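Proteins fold reproducibly. Look at a concrete instance:
___
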Amino acid sequence: MPRILIIGGHGKVAQRLEPILAERGDTVTAVIRNRDHEADVAATGATPLVADIESFDTEQLTNLVSGNDAVVWSAGAGGGDVARTWAVDRDAAIRSIDAAVAAGVKRYVMVSYFGAGPDHGVPEDDSFYAYAEAKAEADAHLRESGLDWTIVAPSALTLDEPTGRITVGGSGEQSVPRGDVAEVVAAVLAEPATIGRMIEFSGGDTPVADAIAAG
């Protein structure tokens, strides 16, 4: 039974991912900031763990991730506050990567977004700029970490019912249900062939397992 640590465990993608992993027999720990969310997370089959990743240093994060087989980063500041975007989406993410290295947790899956990278093209006066830059830096750090990484990069997220089908690649101008993003994360955790890949995808017609294997 793989031990999976999900950082950002009360997020909309994470709460769809947790029952998928739990039902297939993985041991799932979900890191959350707010103790009031413990019951929500426990209901998914995951074990809630209250910790403020924004304030944790690398040593504390190393202790947090130790003993797991994989880390999934599904946390985010949620936009709006630029300083917190840098603090969570870049700085805390980078510390968590360094922590995984220090703890010997080789497998790391980053939830990013379609088009993320240094050539994201978002102008500095755009409210999305800080997030785009933060994700570009965190993703780059992950690529250079020596970990067995996968970057999951969905297009615009919706709350539509998941279909279990996606399209890898394309323009990124489409959308995808959050439930299907969770299916992709679960699938890449179980598929070593996805290591070292950034998988950009939208909703589509190909079953998730086939789509990620073909990429």
In short: The first strand starts at residue 3 and ends at 7. The CA atoms of residues 138 and 144 lie 10 Å apart. The mean pLDDT is 95.
